[in-house]
Amino acid sequence: MSKVNSSRTGCKDVFHAFLVENATYDSALEIPCMDTETKKPRNLIPFSKALHSKDYNSWIHFYEDDVVIERIWNRIQTYLPILKRFEGVISPDFSVYRDMPLVMQFWNIYRSRAVGHWLQENGIPVIPNIRFGDYRTYEASCAGIKRHGVISIGSHGCIKIRTEREYFKAGLRYVVKALEPSALIIYGTAPDEVFAPYKRMGIDIVQFDSYIMQIRKENK
User: Fold this and answer.
1) For all residues of the chain together, what is the average pLDDT?
2) Which residue, 113, 102, 96, is CA-closest to 26?
3) Pairing mode, if any, of strands 126-127 and 31-32?
4) Measured between alpha carbons, how far is 187 from 169 in angstroms, rounded to an integer?
5) Which residues touch 216 (CB under 8 Å, ≥6 apart)?
6) Strands (E), 38-141
7) Cα–Cα distance between 139 and 171 in angstroms, integer?
8) How many C-beta atoms lie closer than 10 Å to residue 76's C-beta?
9) Domain assignments of the chain as residue spans, ordered by start
10) DSSP letters along 191-215, please?
11) Which residues contact 30 (CB under 8 A, 6 or more apart)?
């Protein structure tokens, strides 16, 4: 992990370089590094609801549509005072779809890590979100993340369909081997078929229902 970012004076910051002004980088892609987080959330609240909520004992997550969470990338300084009211944040879950051009998948991983780094710089506890596509993104998905910390993974939409489940399981195996996390925060289902091996390894699995899962339970 190396290479300190340098800024350019007199240029409009269209690439949001301010987010990584003090960052160091990891891998050939120069993904910004984040500090290790050891805290685990007791409650989660989506970014869109946190904007008007006083449930400050929750951690904010970004497992929402990209059109919703783009706001944190475009106007992060505006939202900083709101984010600071809560116990912590899970870094943004910008989409990494396998059918996206690979460079865009890397860009979204970079953006998530850049936002996470900047929030940590501003005193907010941040759990890194890990999002991968296929094997081509595995290394990048772990870049900038230190071992033995708490990480978060969204399983919603990745488990039900067999093909998607196999991609998810393969990516998760890589992530766990590379990062050896102390805990996995799971947003969505956490079936034993997928997560039992990691429980046996002593990794703490902390599962939270997705918003859709919560609605279905309420309507039963």
Assistant:
1) 94
2) 113
3) unpaired
4) 15
5) none
6) 44-46, 59-61, 88-90, 126-127
7) 10
8) 19
9) 17-218
10) -HHHHHHHHHTT-EEEEE--HHHHH
11) 3
Report the distance separating Cα 155 and Cα 169, nearest Å.
Answer: 10
Provide the pLDDT for residue 94: 98
156-190 pLDDT, tens digit each: 989 989 999 999 999 999 999 999 999 999 999 99
Angstrom distance (rounded) from CA 56 to CA 38: 19
pTM to 2 decimal places:
0.92
Q: Are 144 and 179 spatial neighbours (Cβ–Cβ below 8 Å)?
A: no
66-80 pLDDT, tens digit per residue, is: 999 999 999 999 999
Residues in the chain: 220
Is residue 153 within 8 Å of residue 176, measured between CB atoms? no
CA distance 27 to 2: 9
